[in-house]
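Response to reviewer comment R2.3. The reviewers asked that we include at least one raw input/output pair. We reproduce the pair for ABC transporter domain-containing protein here without editing.
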Amino acid sequence: MLVVPVSSFIEGGFQISNGLVAARQVTRFLALRAKERPRPAGPEIVPGTLVGLVSARPEESVALLEGLGGFDGTSLIADHDAALFAGTLREVLQGRGEADDEAIHRAVHVAAAQDVVAGLRHGLDAVIEPDGRNLSGGQWQRVRLARALLAEPEVLLAVEPTSALDAHTESLLVGRLRTARDGRTTVVATTSPPLFAQADRVLFVEDGRVAASGTHRELMESTPAYRSVFG
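Raw output as returned:
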């Protein structure tokens, strides 16, 4: 007789229910006539640039980020709070794709996550528990970012991809991200000074709209409300 742990049924049911909810949402969206579909809202972003979004109230910059869906090509939101399904690390990173190990290691390098792979006994074949329960917050965050990078979207929309990292790892990741995404659009809602220092443009959001824009240095000099975000 085949014996299956109850936890497997619970986890399977959770994933199936999530999939059904997502499918219904997509179906409802596609069922709308073109003129009825919600139009993307938000500031204009120059294609091929690295842009930072920041606000004294982080939920405002995140809301604005979610409105940036008007680009041609694929957009991908790498939300650090999104669900992470169980499986081997390789499967988690691949998502729905079929990337080879060389591509996986490139994405892992950009996300400064080589130590995550090296620290797991079986490397890419190590089993990741549901929602990354056997990973630390910083490891979990970098695995998510590596998975997003592996998909190579033309437009990458990321929410706080470095909030759980130490300063050294954050600086390393930001520099690699800048190089790896050169020529493709990357928009990040964050409060990370290292990322803003690398960004082509920073948008300061206040009361749900862009109140000021410029480089990090320009905004630090010209906008008191922007300076106050960093203490």
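The chain has three domains: 1-32, 46-74+153-230, 83-152. The beta strands are 50-55, 75-79, 87-88, 127-128, 155-159, 185-189, 201-206, 209-214. Further pairs are available on request from the corresponding author.
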